[in-house]
Automatic annotation (TrEMBL):
UniProt source species: Dokdonella fugitiva
Domain of life, per lineage: Bacteria
Pfam families assigned: TPR_6
InterPro entries: TPR-like_helical_dom_sf, TPR_rpt
UniProt name for this protein: Tetratricopeptide repeat protein
Length: 173
């Protein structure tokens, strides 16, 4: 029931954003200037919703801003709406990144694990997930993922991401 309400809120916010107008080609300074940070963010997110159309990556980006910006329930509703329907593995990966960025490894881990299982040839993804494991104290799992990644190809970003994790540096996204 709680998820249905959250999804309904997300859908209504998305539909409300359509009211901003399809012609939102430019963002007028009056959208954000002289407004509180909260009101400026809301106005810009309304425009972003229209710009996003039906793009899942764009909706995840909006959810990220809400989730990390103190509006977790609204961001979660967007994520739940995406994950509750037909979606790509990359959508789960991007949402897992948001949870990780929020310091919620327990929520991120199962999504990363599912991505790794479904994408065994994604050397960069495997290395990035390995880096997150290492950064969360699980060196054994990290090194297994690094080994899988490097067994596919010695891709630059995978190598740099793994190296950074040993020094406490989060991989570039």
């Amino acid at each position: 029931m709680k998820n249905r309400i959250a999804v309904a809120v997300a859908v209504s916010l998305f539909v409300a954003g359509v009211g901003v107008g399809y012609a939102a080609q430019k963002v007028a300074a009056s959208t954000f200037q002289g407004k509180s940070k909260e009101d400026a963010a809301r106005a810009l997110l309304d425009i972003a919703r229209v710009q996003a159309k039906d793009g899942s990556w764009e909706r995840i980006a909006i959810g990220r801003v809400l989730y990390l910006g103190g509006h977790k329930a609204e961001g979660q509703a967007i994520f739940d709406g995406l994950l509750g329907g037909e979606h790509e593995d990359s959508d789960e990966f991007r949402i897992a990144r948001v949870y990780r960025e929020a310091g919620e490894w327990a929520k991120a881990k199962p999504l990363f694990d599912k991505f790794a299982a479904n994408n065994p040839k994604d050397e960069k993804g495997l290395a990035e997930i390995g880096a997150f494991y290492l950064l969360n104290g699980d060196r054994a799992t990290a090194e297994k993922l690094f080994e899988r990644s490097f067994g596919i190809a010695a891709e630059f970003w995978a190598t740099v991401g793994a190296a950074g994790a040993y020094l406490g540096v989060v991989p570039e996204e």
